[in-house]
Automatic annotation (TrEMBL):
<keyword id="KW-0808">Transferase</keyword>
<dbReference type="Pfam" id="PF01933">
    <property type="entry name" value="CofD"/>
</dbReference>
<dbReference type="InterPro" id="IPR010115">
    <property type="entry name" value="FbiA/CofD"/>
</dbReference>
<dbReference type="InterPro" id="IPR038136">
    <property type="entry name" value="CofD-like_dom_sf"/>
</dbReference>
<keyword id="KW-0460">Magnesium</keyword>
<dbReference type="InterPro" id="IPR002882">
    <property type="entry name" value="CofD"/>
</dbReference>
<protein>
    <submittedName>
        <fullName>2-phospho-L-lactate transferase</fullName>
    </submittedName>
</protein>
<dbReference type="GO" id="GO:0000287">
    <property type="term" value="F:magnesium ion binding"/>
</dbReference>
<dbReference type="GO" id="GO:0043743">
    <property type="term" value="F:LPPG:FO 2-phospho-L-lactate transferase activity"/>
</dbReference>
Length: 322
């Protein structure tokens, strides 16, 4: 099976680990027939201290490559922070985004290759040569696209980088809107549209539907290509609350209720064919979308693999998009 997964950070990476397990144990397909192409969100990317940081690409790469800080879901395991401490000693700003020493090496490799003219897709492939994530990881675009947040508080109305809103302010300043800076002139990265067209189906993991999956779908050409395929998504909302992160703050900003049903309706039945919800939301009905309920907390690898298997099974059941 050829599967394309649109992924953001932590939730997407953990789902992908379960998907690899589910395919590995699947009897009806020779192992070699399976391929997973991940289209990763780059809207969270930020340049800090002259280094280009790609949080969602790195979270997928480290999680599937065995280098992730498991509790955090981002950054490296066994980290030290000497570089960070020295930067603070120099009074360098910002100090609200913690870069670990091992992680800095990734950003140095990426920044050096960017300066030499390599596109982000080639750089990501080179980094994955080391980490061997077992999936093909493509950035959604090679162009620079960043999510900025329009906020208004005592300091006045202004746009700040998504990371500043997310990490410094923990999404506590109400966001008026999200702006995907650069998206309107961005092109899908090489291989993205072809992978989607050649896929048997597309999966939306429980990533942030607004700033992760929404950002990917916002790259011209990607939403149309995905809409032509069978798409099965996994709800990131269980019982009216996000499983992790602050998806509710993002959904509120775009006027979408924090519920499994509302997120599916936000994606739209022109895009979404199947939707997995937790048993707490088993009464979810979405016009034009096949809804299935099962335990959705990715509490352990077996549970995560079961969720991924259910997504694959539903996609196969829904078959070729009519
Ligand atoms: N998240 C935090 O809450 N605090 C941090 O200091 C932080 C540093 C960081 C460094 C590298 C990286 O790849 C991710 C990092 N994150 C941090 C997480 C990041 O904000 C999120 O992974 C995504 O951008 C949101 O999905």
């Amino acid at each position: 099976m050829r599967i394309v997964v649109l992924a953001g950070g932590i939730g997407g990476a953990r789902f992908l680990r379960g998907l690899k397990d589910a395919l590995h144990n699947r009897a009806d397909q020779a192992e070699s027939q399976n391929s997973i192409t991940v289209v990763g969100n780059t809207g969270d990317d930020i340049t800090l201290f002259g280094l280009r940081v790609c949080p969602d690409l790195d979270t997928v790469m480290y999680t599937l490559g065995g280098g992730i800080n498991e509790e955090q879901g981002w950054g490296r395991a066994d980290e030290t922070f000497s570089v960070r401490e020295e930067l603070i000693a120099y009074g360098m700003q910002p100090q609200w985004f913690g870069l670990g020493d091992r992680d800095v090496a990734t950003h140095i490799v990426r920044s050096q290759m960017l300066a030499a003219g390599y596109p982000l897709s080639a750089i990501t492939e080179a980094l994955c040569d080391r980490w061997k994530p077992g999936v093909r990881l493509l950035p959604m675009t090679d162009d620079q696209v960043e999510t900025h947040v329009v906020v208004a508080d005592g300091a006045g109305r202004r746009a700040i980088h998504f990371q500043e809103w997310w990490v410094r302010h923990r999404a506590q300043i109400p966001a008026e809107s999200f702006v995907s800076v650069g998206a309107d002139t961005a092109e899908p990265a090489p291989g993205v549209l072809a992978a989607i067209e050649e896929a048997d189906f597309v999966l939306f993991p429980p990533s942030n539907p607004v700033v992760s999956i929404g950002s990917i779908l916002g790259i011209p050409g990607i939403r149309e290509a995905v809409a032509a395929k069978t798409v099965v998504g996994v709800s990131p909302i269980i019982g009216g609350a996000p499983v992790r992160g602050m998806a509710d703050a993002c959904l509120r900003t775009i006027g979408v209720e924090t519920s499994a049903r509302a997120v599916a309706e936000h994606y739209g039945s022109d895009l979404l064919d199947g939707w997995l919800v937790d048993e707490a939301d088993a009464d979810t009905v979405v016009e034009g979308v096949e809804v299935r309920a099962l335990p959705l907390y990715m509490s352990d690898p077996e549970r995560t693999a079961a969720i991924a298997r259910a997504a694959v099974d539903l996609a196969v059941e829904l078959g070729e998009k009519s």
